Amino acid sequence: MTEVGLVFFPAFDWAISHDHPERQERLLYTRDQIQEEGLFDHPSIREYRPRLATDEEILRTHVVLPSLHHTVAESHRIAAGGTIVASDLVIDGLVKHAFALLRPPGHHANRIVHGSRGFCVLNNEAIMVDHLRHRLGADLKVAIVDTDAHHADGTQDIFYNDPGVLHISLHQDGRTLYPGTGFTSERGGPGAYGQTVNIPLPPGTGDEGMLMVMERVVLPILKEWKPDYVINAAGQDNHFSDPITNMSFSAQGYAKLTELLSPDLVVLEGGYSIESALPYINVGLLLALAGLDYSKVQEPVQRLDREKQTKSLTEQVVRVCDEVIDFWQHRSEVKLEEVFGAGSLFQRQRQIYYDTDNIYESQQEYIRLCSDCAGWRVIYTSSTKARDLVGVVLLPWKPCQACSVEAREQQGELLADQRFSQVICVDPAANLHQV
Amino acid sequence: MSEFYKIGIDVGGTNTDAALLCDSEVVALVKVPTNHNDLLSSTMQALHKVLDHYEGKDPLQLHLSTTLSTNAIVEGRGAPANVVAVPGPGVNLKSLEFPFPILELGGYMDHRGREVSPLDLHQIAGLRKALGEDEARALAIVGKFSQRNPSHEQRLKAELSKWHRGFISMGHRLSGRSNFPRRIVTTYLNASIAQHQLDFLGVWKDVDRAPLGEILILKADGGTMNLEDSAERPIESILSGPAASIMGVKALSLCQEKNYVIVDIGGTTTDLAAVVGGEALFERDGATISGYKTLVPAFLVRSIGLGGDSALTYEEGQGITIGPRRSGTPVCLGGEQLTPTDAAVALGLACLGSQEKARQGWQRWGATLGVDGSSLARRVLQAFTRQLRQAVDAFYEELENMPLYTIQELLHPPELRPTAVVGLGAPAPIFIPALGEDLDLPWEVLSFSAGANAIGAAAARATVGVTLRADTERGSVTIPEMGYQREIHRPLFFSIEKARQLAEEKTREYANFRGYDATGEVYIVEEESFQMVRGFRTVGQTHMVRTQLRPEVHRVRGRTK
Ligand SMILES: [Zn+2]
Ligand SMILES: [Zn+2]
Questions:
Q1: Which one of A19, A47, A50 has the shortest CB-CB distance to B536?
Q2: Distance from CA of B97 to the nearest CA of A (A)
Q3: B92 and A14 in contact by Cβ < 8 A?
Q4: Pair (A250, A166) in one structural domain
Q5: In this structure, are residues A59 and A426 in contact, taking their beta carbons and an 8 Å threshold?
Q6: pTM of the predicted model, to two decimals?
Q7: B81-192 adopts what CATH topology?
């Protein structure tokens, strides 16, 4: 069995716009470096070609408005399809680890998609998780560790109430960076409370802090939760040279993190220091994933001393670690009715901004509080792009009998309601996406 | 008009073939057994035999496809060579476990060819001692990203030449492609077989060359190089045998299809190659020889252990399997073990040795299995076709999984599948028609299928190519193969068109410099062009243009004069 399967797709002919960070050039130097280091034909690494994700594979995870063909481009389908190819390689035992080194990224894409948010349209990791469950069954436990500098708000949104998924996001504190969320108090919905784990880190956190979080929080949580698969959403914008964030991580740190985590699957997320960081992070990551010596990987421009983590910053990181792990250890003692109310429904309203496409979305969400399953959800959504109100009924991967019946009733009620221009019902375990 | 004579010689594993061409006609085709202990004597024997058919007076050109370099590498007979590398940070060279020692020097060149840290001059001074007493031992100098900026390699050579007396090979001169481990291997092997090549050339200086004129060496990419070049870049002469066969197909085939599969069936192995859009496909990075991955440009050829003399095994439930082992002499020629060739002979599909012996052989084996001898022979031929077909399918599956990096290519991948089969090699007339039928494709067995390799060698022409890389932000343009590095004076105006133009010009200059006819078409093998944006502002462009002087073949008519 090959150590690492590499699904590399730099999309050399695609950009969001000419001078956008998501442009043709983004993975050029990474390609050059991997090629020059001889890693494309290293005996431990094998390269694979991505494919386009099918409608079915996308709609298992997403509700795309106004329609799939209107909103999703070929580039998004290839990125999503590449992660599916990567998961198949691991499931089929062809490789031990697979790395989907491709663009565009996905972790800011929510369940409901009106357009592009934070450069993302389709959530690659989420499509990957649902593909794993589609092939291996709804009982599968999958953990996502998102190490991008930005909070993985899209992934959080998708798995917020999903007991089959543990979502851990390490990121620069939302008070100082897009998308402004990802606080420790965001812990998941009533069906999966405590399985959304946010670790906001102070700007300037470097190798020491990131590795401390791994050792004190991430690894112990994973050890306890025992996932069947671990996915690393490997954003590389926490590098000290990244132009759009303020973190201080290095290629060596990233390789060490990869070695510690030893994820089954890795998916590239952000990372826009395309010359000074990405080539070296990706070489280090590949070597670490393949169990090879990465000790000599080093960026051409070294981190300045003042960019190294200060003592007070380390203390802040320690406090975050303590808070997160403390809650994790006591999560089962939380009385859910104190958090979500004692009634049969929990409801919330949200405004979601799509920065890349300049769209505003309004959501009204209802979650059925059920003691036998994660409960059905109903979401009313409308946006400045598709003004008509759309009703969405979502079933969990493992619905109880009562929730299955009730969800159908909900669907019937929405269909009868003149306010909705469209009603969509998603039952992922039955592979059903009904419009 | 005077007639133009040429000789092609291909030294193969079993036989050495020689062809004498006059313009586009085959005058003679001869064959002598290859003497592995003395390749030169086989070559001379074939040469003299074919020269018997030459009645002209003018000097004639000799194209040689030898297995000399290939064998030296495969048999581990290359001379020890020292490798001095400038790896910079990255993959730890020691972890790659090269089967030869490498002296590492300090210095760091980045992916755009910018010097991050200079060569460690202190270490250079110490090299003389580190390299040992032998000042004449061949030397390979290789830097990471030297194809983007060869100055470290050049400086090192200048320093070392002050005392070193032997052959020095620099990585950037051998290839403009990216792949540092392959560059190390290529340069090392080049240095290691340099002396063999010089000895070989020495012999040709001494022999009575009349009526020979120019002598050219066949390369793995199907082109030829002159003797001076072969002394500098002997590594390019590896794997010329399969290249000779492909050139034979290009010279002889009447196939009109754009895509076809070339099936070269030999005694022990069958080689597959793919022609797409009229051109034989090349290896993505370079040739692999005896486990060594190199940057030597080479046709993409996959070898399978299936041939006319392959061993047969019968297993209950499994049926008959052919190869990959080679059997001894076929039964029809007095051997012990039945082979696919014996099946063809027994069924009257081929004339070789004694048909009676072959028939008896099948009857004896058939009796032990309780089947009729001729039906067993037929089954062997069917098994051969089936295995060949599986190999062809696997070969195309591999090709179809080659990585693609653009959305356009992924949405519209190039059509690779063949619409015809072209076969050569002595057993081709037996097996190719059945393979064509099985694949449901038209087929062709080359005329002179048993000597097409020698004809291909004779029909080949020189190939020369360069890799131009321009970086307008840095304001530099590099052509590593030529050791060329210049400043761009007006970077803003250095467009991709300009890069193409310069690449073509330089390709011709390089061909002329090396003594080749540079009048042919220069075509672009590969091209890339990117805008470099920093902080929402375009700061430059990077262009890469890889060219080739089209490796034309002389078309040869499929009949003897
Ligand atoms: Zn990010
Ligand atoms: Zn329920």
A1: A19
A2: 12
A3: no
A4: yes
A5: yes
A6: 0.94
A7: Rossmann fold (3.40.50)
